[in-house]
Amino acid sequence: MEASGSRGKGREETSCSLASSSPSCCLASSSASCSLTSSSVRRKRKGKFYASYLLVSLSERSSRGKGRTYIGFTVNPSRRIRQHNGKLAMGACSTRAFRPWEMVLVVYGFSSKGKALAFEWAWQHPRRSKAIKEKVGKIKRTALTGMKGKVRILNELLCSEAFASEAPNLRVQVLDSKHSDVLPCLSQTRVPVSIAPMQELPTEDYGQGEEEEEGALPAGGLGKCMLCFGELIEGCAVLACRCRSAFHVNCLEKHLPNPCPMCQYPLTMDEALDLGRGTADEIEIGIPTAQCGTPTAKERIIEKSSPIVISLLSP
C-alpha cells in the first residue's frame, strides 16, 4: 500500500489503465475515467457523504446464499460492511443469514440524504420506480438478478432523466479489480467509474454525515417522523415513502398533497399505507427527539385493517 499522499495517483492510474485495456467498457471516455486525479478527488467538497452500495454474499452454507446481492444506503461504507458481517452491532436483519458479505461498489456524491435514499429505493425496486420501469420492463427478470444484473440496473439509473441533476457530481467506485467484469454493464453512463480499495473513498473530503443508515443507531426508539421529527414508538401507526422516510399518520395527512419532504416524490395516502407494510428493519433509524401522541381514531382503523410496519397497541 502506498503512502496516503500518493493514493490519488494510484486511483488515476487504475482508471486510465482500465479505459485503455477494456475499450468495450466505453466508460464515457478515457478522459472521463481519468478525471479522478489527485487534485480533483482530494479537494474539499460541499455537502456530506451519502452513498448507495452493492453487496454480494460469499456464504458457502447454502446454495441460496452465495452470490446473493443486497443494496443499501450508508454514510460510512467501512463501518457499514462491518455491521453487515456482524463485527459491529446493528446490521440489517435481512443480511444476517448470508454472511459474510463483500462490498462490490459504492455510488457516492449525492446532494442530499433524500436523493441518495430515493436512488437506493429505485435501485432496489427497478420495476416499480418511475425512473426506469419502462426500460427494465423490457428486460427478462433473470437478466436483472445477481451482481451483473444489479449493475445493469445501476447503469439505467445513472442514465435516467430522474437523476440527471445528480449525475455530474456522482462517482462509481468498484472496490476490487476482481470485479472488473461488471464494468461493461456501465458502458452507457457518463458518470466516472474507477477501481480502488475502500480506503480510497474520499469520505474525508465531505462533511461527516450526521444521518445514519438503517440500523446504525441504538434502537432506543424506532426512528423519527420526517415531518414533525417526533419519535416513532409502539402505539403509533407509521406510513412510509419510497425513499424509506417514515411518518405519523396525522403528520402525513396534514402534509398531503405536498410531496415527500425528503425525496420530493408525489406520495399519496394509499401508497404510503402500502409502502408501510414490511418489517421494522426497513425503516430508517433516526435520533428520537419527541414523544408520539395517542393514536387517533383513523390510526385505530388502519391498525385493524393493515399490517403496519410497527405493531400497533391500543391506547
Automatic annotation (TrEMBL):
Main location: nucleus
SUPFAM superfamilies: RING/U-box (SSF57850)
Protein's GO biological process: double-strand break repair via homologous recombination
Top EC class, one word: hydrolase
Localization in the cell: Nucleus
Keyword Methyltransferase: no
Cofactor names: a divalent metal cation
Boundaries of every GIY-YIG domain copy: 48-133
Domain of life from the UniProt record: Eukaryota
Pfam families reported in the protein's UniProt record: GIY-YIG (PF01541)
Region (Disordered): 1-31
Entry keyword set: DNA damage, DNA recombination, DNA repair, Endonuclease, Hydrolase, Metal-binding, Nuclease, Nucleus, Zinc, Zinc-finger
Compositionally biased residues, Low complexity: 15-31
Function: Catalytic subunit of a heterodimeric structure-specific endonuclease that resolves DNA secondary structures generated during DNA repair and recombination. Has endonuclease activity towards branched DNA substrates, introducing single-strand cuts in duplex DNA close to junctions with ss-DNA.
Protein name: Structure-specific endonuclease subunit SLX1 homolog
Organism of this sequence: Chloropicon primus
